[in-house]
């Protein structure tokens, strides 16, 4: 779980510069500001805040799918100086709970095959690999597509 001094809450427009700074610190091919701006209204665009500073974020959306809505974790990052404290897990769990609350049944995400830390977190939360996508990332690295059934996640969490 997240440390007691951290609050996980919905993103606000005023948080976007901090979110972009974290994105740039964490990823070699960061999203631009306007990508985050377009996602402000997603049901699970959440930030982790400590002492007034945003230290991490998660973005997840929901898509109708014939009565079995599908969620998609689009982005999850924790500032390098705040890693190892459970913030990523807290953000992920909060996003999954929000998606479940809006009727999502299954959640998917893509992760770099080489990102062992993220893959371990996702496996701990019940995500299972369903396929590999060759050359998914701009640098040519493959992605693994992972999924979790939220009914199973809820009973196992």
SSE map:
Layout: E1 6-10, H1 16-26, H2 33-38, E2 44-50, E3 53-63, E4 69-78, H3 87-101, E5 104-112, H4 116-124, E6 128-133, E7 143-149, H5 150-156
Parallel strand pairs: 4-5
Antiparallel strand pairs: 1-2, 2-3, 3-4, 5-7, 6-7
Q: Could you characterize the architecture of this molecule?
A:
The protein has 157 residues and is of the alpha+beta class. It has five helices and seven strands, in the order βααβββαβαββα. It has a seven-stranded mixed beta sheet with strand order 1-2-3-4-5-7-6. The termini are close together. The mean pLDDT is 93.
Distance between the termini: 11 Å
What is the general shape?
globular
- What is the strand tally? 7
- Approximately how much beta-strand content do the residues carry? 35-45%
User: What is the alpha-carbon Rg in Å?
Assistant: 15 Å
Largest sheet: 7 strands, mixed
Count, helices: 5
Low-confidence runs (pLDDT<50, min 5 residues)? none
Mean of all residue-level pLDDT scores: 93
* SS-derived structural category: alpha+beta
Helix content: 25-40%
Going across the biggest sheet, name each strand in turn: 1-2-3-4-5-7-6
H and E order: EHHEEEHEHEEH
């Amino acid at each position: 779980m997240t440390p007691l001094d951290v609050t996980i809450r919905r993103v606000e427009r005023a948080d976007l510069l901090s979110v972009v700074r974290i994105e740039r610190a964490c990823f070699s091919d960061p999203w631009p500001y306007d990508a985050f701006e377009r996602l402000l209204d997603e049901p699970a665009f959440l930030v982790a805040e400590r002492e007034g500073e945003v230290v991490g974020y998660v973005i997840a959306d929901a898509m109708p799918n014939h009565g079995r809505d599908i969620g998609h974790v689009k982005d999850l990052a924790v500032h390098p100086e705040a890693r190892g404290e459970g913030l990523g897990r807290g953000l992920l769990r909060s996003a999954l709970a929000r998606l479940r609350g809006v009727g999502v049944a299954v959640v998917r995400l893509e992760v770099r095959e080489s990102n062992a830390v993220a893959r371990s977190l996702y496996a701990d939360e019940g995500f299972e690999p369903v396929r590999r996508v060759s050359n998914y990332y701009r640098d040519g690295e493959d992605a693994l597509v992972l999924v979790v059934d939220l009914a199973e996640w809820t009973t196992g969490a």
